[in-house]
């Protein structure tokens, strides 16, 4: 298999990572709920960090429901996708610094990190959706986060993630149609 075939294989078997984006819809819903409470901002931020922790198990469960090959061990590009995600962990140190320093901006920074980390998946999954949302999210969230409170940022991320999920589902459906036409 050449590189493009491996990328296509990854896109098909992992449905372009749709399970992770659907999991993020659930997590951003929870972040929004926390930031709508009357809790102190540092408590909200701490809970926000806790909320992000179950991303992998939640994505795994969603993968089972939508029939995604979660590990796709036969494709070496899966390891590259894991590396793309692991890279985001290093950037979370920035959000940890923001947490006590400028607490009202932590959700904004977290959302920008999340959005920016999507860029290499545009290449991996040959996805216009990933390219588009990886640029849109950091820029839009910076604009919103400077002007509005964290719950507005979380609500905006929830809407964006729903739109992103729909866009990816459309791309995945297109892949399925191509496979059906080719008899794959």
UniProtKB/TrEMBL annotation:
InterPro entries: DUF7010. Pfam families: DUF7010. The chain crosses the membrane at residues 20-41, 47-66, 78-100, 106-123, 130-146, 152-172. Keywords: Membrane, Transmembrane, Transmembrane helix. This is Uncharacterized protein. It comes from Proteiniclasticum aestuarii.
């Amino acid at each position: 298999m050449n590189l493009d075939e491996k990328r296509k294989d990854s896109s098909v078997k992992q449905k372009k990572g749709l399970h992770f984006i659907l999991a993020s819809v659930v997590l951003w819903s929870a972040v929004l709920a926390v930031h709508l409470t009357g809790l102190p901002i540092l408590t909200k931020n701490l809970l926000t960090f806790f909320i992000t922790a179950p991303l992998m198990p939640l994505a795994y469960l969603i993968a089972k429901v939508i029939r995604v090959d979660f590990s796709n061990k036969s494709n070496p590009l899966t390891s590259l996708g894991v590396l793309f995600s692991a890279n985001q962990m290093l950037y979370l140190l920035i959000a940890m610094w923001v947490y006590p320093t400028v607490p009202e901006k932590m959700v904004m920074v977290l959302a920008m990190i999340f959005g920016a980390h999507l860029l290499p998946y545009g290449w991996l999954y040959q996805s216009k959706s990933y390219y588009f949302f990886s640029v849109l999210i950091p820029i839009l969230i910076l604009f919103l986060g400077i002007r509005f409170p964290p719950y507005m940022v979380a609500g905006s991320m929830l809407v964006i993630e729903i739109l992103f999920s729909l866009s990816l589902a459309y791309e995945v459906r297109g892949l399925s149609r191509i496979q059906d036409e080719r008899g794959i």
